[in-house]
User: Fold Alanine racemase from Massilia phyllostachyos.
Amino acid sequence: MDASRAGAQLTVDLGAIRDNYRLLAGMSKGACAAVMKADAYGLGMEQVAPALALEGCRVFFTAHLQEAIALRQLVPEHCVIYVLHGPPPGTAKDFFQYDLTPVLNEPGQLQEWRRLAHKLGRELPAAIQLDTGMSRMGFAPADLSALGDLAGVRPALVMSHLACADEPDHPMNEAQRRRFDSLRGLLPGVPASLANSSGVFLGPGYHYDLLRPGAALYGINPQPGRPTPLRQAVSLHARVVQVRSVCEGDVVGYGAHHVCAGERRIATVSVGYADGWQRSLSGRGQAAVDGVIVPIVGRVSMDSMGLDVTGIDPERVVPGAEVELMGPTLPVDDVAALAGTIGYEVLTRLGSRFHRRYL
Amino acid sequence: MDASRAGAQLTVDLGAIRDNYRLLAGMSKGACAAVMKADAYGLGMEQVAPALALEGCRVFFTAHLQEAIALRQLVPEHCVIYVLHGPPPGTAKDFFQYDLTPVLNEPGQLQEWRRLAHKLGRELPAAIQLDTGMSRMGFAPADLSALGDLAGVRPALVMSHLACADEPDHPMNEAQRRRFDSLRGLLPGVPASLANSSGVFLGPGYHYDLLRPGAALYGINPQPGRPTPLRQAVSLHARVVQVRSVCEGDVVGYGAHHVCAGERRIATVSVGYADGWQRSLSGRGQAAVDGVIVPIVGRVSMDSMGLDVTGIDPERVVPGAEVELMGPTLPVDDVAALAGTIGYEVLTRLGSRFHRRYL
Assistant:
């Protein structure tokens, strides 16, 4: 989108993402994959995937089949692409056609893959996911007997997912690790993977043969509350539409909830909740002008919101000028905290009306 | 997107949207526009705009220039397209090139448009927005003197926006209406517009010459707490990835916050917060199976979430089956209430990973 026509500019620092990949990959003796689901956490798989391939990444994960089909054209042929949700009924042939590897989560998916292998008369690779306590994806205790007969399927990876890795002291981490060690005995000699971004920081006991970071690549802090070793990868700057002076008693925004306590200057910027700038930021979110924090006042509208820029040089905040919504002054995790959520949700909701710039 | 590969199916009922337009247009003696911003509130401008043009709609509104450029190719040439944010600096020529009409909100935008008119040696049409108390967009009291010289600009519409129209008894409504009547005296004889969706229901005194509904077209109730006369326009059905039995004490989802009180069946469906199914629905949202409500259990993940389907026939909830997230049993306003927000935010956040079907 033409920058002059857009309401905001989203800048993605591919160099930072590559640096983060290098740092994470260097923490383990094993390999390091990259999670590409949800359009590379909202930052653009089309740009992020090739950048990570250049950095040496050879294993990628998506959630959905359709995402993996798109990814197949973006990375070298020898890269492995796993699809975390496995094959929906009737889609096994698509996996084969596009050279995608399913993560098999339950007996039906295993049967689907075995049927295709039988039909093709060849062995097909798959990852086997074991549920170690999160009760989300992966073979449950009652399903394990189905793993007794894998004929036609070559298990290329055995994996599980941690529910509480962002809380290093949570007993669930160790419980899941032990359960993983016990269960993967069913698949002897198969490379293993357990660690998501936060899991990488739980130590070498969680690394196994393949790390699977997503969030950390994109600058989300995998250890909430502690200093992050990762670089911020994304910034968002909104354009000012207009600036007005308001008087004591004037109201700002829907519902007339914000009542001005005195004379103030209000800038309307053209980003709203339709752009992913959550309505929960109403009256509590922040923006920044050259490093100085200014508050969001009133409710966030669909396409715009108000900022109190009284303390900022009026010549700096004029129609067409840009203010920071996320970036050096407002890291993604801070924005998420103000919105009452996590950085993952902030990034994956970034809208489609921005001009996007890749560094 | 191929339906079999998608994690969910979004169905948009264009017939319902046309019915809603007809109902709204019939409420006023004047004309009725349609608001198309944010991709027709997330439902797809490419399909919605032509459907409304067929229904007789001749005036459309977008927020951004880029949206209007896309809209220009979707509706007949004689349709008027207004851009609510007005021209960002340097873009007046784009408005002229694509036959778009800016909503002028402040003196700088007026100057921008006047400069182009002068350069072209012709009069250019514009809407003039007056701020009547919302302090968001439109000429503020201090800006009004600039309206004294419109040479080169033909005011085709004078408009303002209501801050509290969804609260019929709020004194702000009448205060804004009076202020609008007073201010539009500056532009005698110019057609006027004040009513958004909720404003239409405040009565004929708010209708003027042009209604501007958005939300109501798409089935959002413009009168919260009262029966809606409008048809639901959208439904969302998610695909089941897998189903598992859990025991007393087992946990579900991130953070291990949901602890099962007894033996339950949990279905994992492939919609999560990256699809706009807000994380605030964790542990409080709902889905429905053939009209029977089932709760979301545990935290909503990025690409999936868990439902407690213990009470549902096991043969109905199997991998590949669909469950309702929004539709006849769960109208958009109910989903919004569970998420702690409004229907506008639910619709405008609908994700891009769905198979979309238009009726």
